[in-house]
């Protein structure tokens, strides 16, 4: 299940997230193992999971380094492409100006072409005047030749700048595509690490043969059960949940909140509809809870006017309760046994 997306952006840098999760695992592993004493060892064993996690961590370090190097190359390519575009703009300006002057010269030459010979013949008995006319004509020819040679250089410079700009643009596009693939590969591995870390946790308490769990008493300053506290911690670490998490409340509504066995993971504030990115975050939280329901003792999930129950393993639509929050459009709700 992919977690990082056009919302990656919302989960922070890759490496710090991995380090935080691994550190949290080391700190709580002993407590979790003690809580599950007397039960069958998880499959695979904690030792195997830790070994696999270490291997994944090593591989992720290589991928993150590769991704970082790709970002550096991308930044260099961006600068080169920008410089090429600026050179092309300058060359285009010169090219346009010289083209205009060249066209004006051609028009002038065309207009003068039929008169110049007659003018010179009219001075055939005045050698001084004739030499003066010939000298002026040669000067104009030399000026035109210089203009043509200069224009040819401008034309060549413009073509070179245009070709370079296209080359740099193509290089940048290729690097953007390559960087996207590197990022996607790294994110997939990060997800594997998160999944492996999840497997290191087992819900505390006693599980019955039918898959249900013996109830627990709430405790601590947050007034929730150890099972609910574990689920809350894992969701918070994996998905961030920037709009807050609400768990215990005193209102007796027939649900698990007053029993310390439920939490709401908010996707917006003030009863407003969440953004598309937050709706997707809610989908990811719900999918994660279903995937880990047996191991973590999750009883049911409510999200977007639907409920999933561990007994059936399927979603069903709920009746309209009359509001965004009441219908759980702005948060997934998770209850544990």
Describe this structure as you would to a colleague.
By secondary structure, the chain is α+β, with helices and mostly antiparallel strands. It folds into two domains: 1-202, Helix Hairpins, CATH 1.10.287; 204-337, no CATH class. It contains seven helices and six strands, in the order αααααββααββββ. The protein has a six-stranded antiparallel β-sheet with strand order 1-2-6-3-4-5. Strand 3 (298-302) and strand 4 (306-309) form a beta hairpin. Helix 2 (46-112) packs antiparallel against helix 4 (127-199). It starts with 13 loop residues before the first helix and ends with a strand.
* Main sheet overview: 6 strands, antiparallel
List how many beta strands DSSP finds. 6
Order of helices and strands: HHHHHEEHHEEEE
* Widest β-sheet, arrangement of strands: 1-2-6-3-4-5
Number of helices: 7
How is the CATH topology of the largest domain named?
Helix Hairpins
Helix content: 55-70%
Count of the separate structural domains: 2
What portion of the residues fall into strands of 2 or more residues? 5-15%
Q: Residue ranges: pLDDT <50 for 5 or more in a row?
A: 1-42
What is the architecture of the largest domain at the second tier of CATH? Orthogonal Bundle
Instruction: Report how far the terminal alpha carbons are from each other.
Output: 25 Å
């Amino acid at each position: 299940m992919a977690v990082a997306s056009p919302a990656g952006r919302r989960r922070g840098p890759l490496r710090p997230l991995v380090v935080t999760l691994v550190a949290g695992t080391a700190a709580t592993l002993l407590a979790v193992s003690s809580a599950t004493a007397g039960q069958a060892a998880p499959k695979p064993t904690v030792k195997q999971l830790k070994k696999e996690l270490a291997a994944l961590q090593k591989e992720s370090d290589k991928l993150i380094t590769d991704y970082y190097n790709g970002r550096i190359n991308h930044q260099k390519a961006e600068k080169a492409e920008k410089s090429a575009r600026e050179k092309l703009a300058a060359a285009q300006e010169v090219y346009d100006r010289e083209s205009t002057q060249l066209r004006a010269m051609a028009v002038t030459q065309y207009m003068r072409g039929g008169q110049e010979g007659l003018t010179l013949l009219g001075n055939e008995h005045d050698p001084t005047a004739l030499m003066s006319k010939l000298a002026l004509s040669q000067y104009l020819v030399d000026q035109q030749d210089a203009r043509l040679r200069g224009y040819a250089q401008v034309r060549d410079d413009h073509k070179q700048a245009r070709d370079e700009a296209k080359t740099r643009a193509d290089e940048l596009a290729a690097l953007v595509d390559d960087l996207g693939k590197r990022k996607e590969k790294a994110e997939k591995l990060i997800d594997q690490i998160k999944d492996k870390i999840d497997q290191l946790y087992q819900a505390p308490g006693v599980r019955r043969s039918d898959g249900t769990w013996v109830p627990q008493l709430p405790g601590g300053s947050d007034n929730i059960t150890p099972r609910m506290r574990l689920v809350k911690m894992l969701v918070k670490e994996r998905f961030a949940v920037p709009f807050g998490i609400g768990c215990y409340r005193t209102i007796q509504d027939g649900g698990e909140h007053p029993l310390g066995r439920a939490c709401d993971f908010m996707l917006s504030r003030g009863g407003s509809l969440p953004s598309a990115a937050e709706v997707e975050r809610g989908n990811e939280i719900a999918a994660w809870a279903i995937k880990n329901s047996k191991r973590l003792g999750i009883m049911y999930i409510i999200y977007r006017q639907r409920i999933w129950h561990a007994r059936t393993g399927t979603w069903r639509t709920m009746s309209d309760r009359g509001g965004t929050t009441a219908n759980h459009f702005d948060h997934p709700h998770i209850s544990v046994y």
